[in-house]
Amino acid sequence: MTFSYQVEDHVLLKDVDLPLESGSFVLLNGVENQAFGLIGGIVAGLFPIDGGEQIPHLEELVKVFKGSLNVSEGSLPVRAVYLGPDPEKHLLFSRVDEEILAQLGSDIDAAAVLSLFRLKEGFLERRISSLSGGEKMKLALAIAFFKDATCTVLHGIVPWLDENGKACLIREISRAQDDNRCVLVMEQEIDDLLPHADRHLFFDGRTLKPPEEKTLHRLGGKIVEVSRILGELVTSGHRPEPVVSFRDVEFSYEGYRDGGFRLSNLSFVLESSRVYGLIGNNGAGKSTIANLILRLEQPSGGTISLFGKPLESICRKDLMEGVCYVSQFPEQHITLSNVQQYRSRAETKGNFLSKKLLDIYFESEREYPISQLTPLQMKALSLISFVTDRTGLIIIDEPTWGIDPEGLARFFEFLTQAVQALDGVTILIITHDLALVELLSAEVMRMKNGVLVTEEKPVVRKKMGAGN
């Protein structure tokens, strides 16, 4: 199948040649821009959307999805299933059994659906809101593979999965091939899938081509250089003091006795002017720690302190000015329509640091509609918009999500610029990617099943940048 896609006079995709034959598994990685995401939606028949009624204030937001599609060779799959990087967008009901019933019908063995990704039958009675991100993705994947389709399109799903989840994914892809279905996986983390793919293609930002060797590896040297500069800025001239303190913290989601998540007697301290990497598989409890710091969740026991004060005593304004949080899905926290509105808000609130950084990375005369931002620009906007001159803690949740290697290096350049303007700051990187933490020379904290575990090798407490 060969197709092109353009919006007004702007060509986003040019002669994209996807060999989606029956029973094939095609792996696609490369530049993760707006056009990259459109490929999966086009193959799945989601885009372009119909014109419909013209709503002026929404037209700019949706016009990229209302472009002109030209299929010059072959045809789109007859019945396609699409699953994107945010499982919550694909799960609409309150309970697991309700979700399976709604999507697959009443004559389906719901327990058999769960078994595709080794979820226990007890999950059927669980509230979806009580599931971890990894469990939500496994549920969404199980439903997707159970559906009757000629093609399954998966975009950005691998980072959600632990080793068992990845093994289940590879098995279900193989089963789909045996059933004569084609599978298209669009991913940046390709190492586990690459040996099983029939074809591997690289997206250069506009079209597909065979991958070059350099595209298969991170831009490690560039990130190491950024980490050296960042480390010197963070650690220079500051005496370490406690920024975050967890003491015997307890927390659990509904249904933890049936395989759900629980934090148990969690204790640790994050010191000022340090960089930490909190690593672990999805479902280990990493993002829950961020939610507790941000007071999005409440502990059932123990104490949490922030900047030397009990967390519950800090008002919402001081919390938001002191902690800058960059979500793995920043679009969930971006509420305005364009970058110009964020620039105006920064001016109104007197956030001169945010205004300065916005002027550096986004041209002041352009509006930049949020719908047209790349994943990299979304993360940069989230960081720049929520940092203030009072920020003492920056939390970045899964920075690799939705960003290609070069974009990742660029993001850390954004982070360096922000840190350079601050008088000492602690950085917490939440990630499943140990290689990234090692490149950043961050102090490693490993989570497993809701507890901090000791490294097999002793971890030397060191300031970022030392030895680089």
Write the layout of secondary structure elements.
Layout (H helix, E strand, L loop, with lengths): L1 E6 L2 E8 L7 E6 L3 H10 L12 H7 L5 E6 L6 E4 L12 H9 L5 H6 L17 H14 L4 E5 L7 H16 L3 E5 L12 E5 L4 E2 L10 H16 L6 E11 L9 E10 L3 E5 L6 H8 L7 E6 L2 E2 L5 H7 E4 L12 H11 L2 H10 L13 H12 L6 E5 L7 H16 L5 E6 L2 H6 L3 E6 L2 E3 L15
Parallel strand pairs: 3-7, 3-8, 5-6, 6-7, 12-17, 12-18, 15-16, 16-17
Antiparallel strand pairs: 1-2, 1-4, 8-9, 10-11, 10-13, 13-14, 18-19
What does this protein look like?
This protein is of the alpha/beta class and 468 residues long. The protein folds into two domains: 2-216, 3-Layer(aba) Sandwich (Rossmann fold); 220-453, P-loop containing nucleotide triphosphate hydrolases (Rossmann fold, 3-Layer(aba) Sandwich). 32% of the residues lie in helices and 22% in strands. It contains 14 helices and 19 strands. It has helices spanning 34-43, 56-62, 96-104, 110-115, 133-146, 163-178, 220-235, 286-293, 316-322, 339-349, 352-361, 375-386, 405-420, 434-439, and strands at 2-7, 10-17, 25-30, 68-73, 80-83, 151-155, 182-186, 199-203, 208-209, 242-252, 262-271, 275-279, 301-306, 309-310, 323-326, 393-397, 426-431, 443-448, 451-453. A six-stranded mixed beta sheet has the order 5-6-7-3-8-9, sandwiched between helices. Strands 15-16-17-12-18-19 form a six-stranded mixed beta sheet. A four-stranded antiparallel beta sheet has the order 11-10-13-14, with no helix packed on it. Strand 8 (199-203) and strand 9 (208-209) form a beta hairpin. Helix 10 (339-349) runs antiparallel to helix 11. The protein is globular and about 65 Å long.
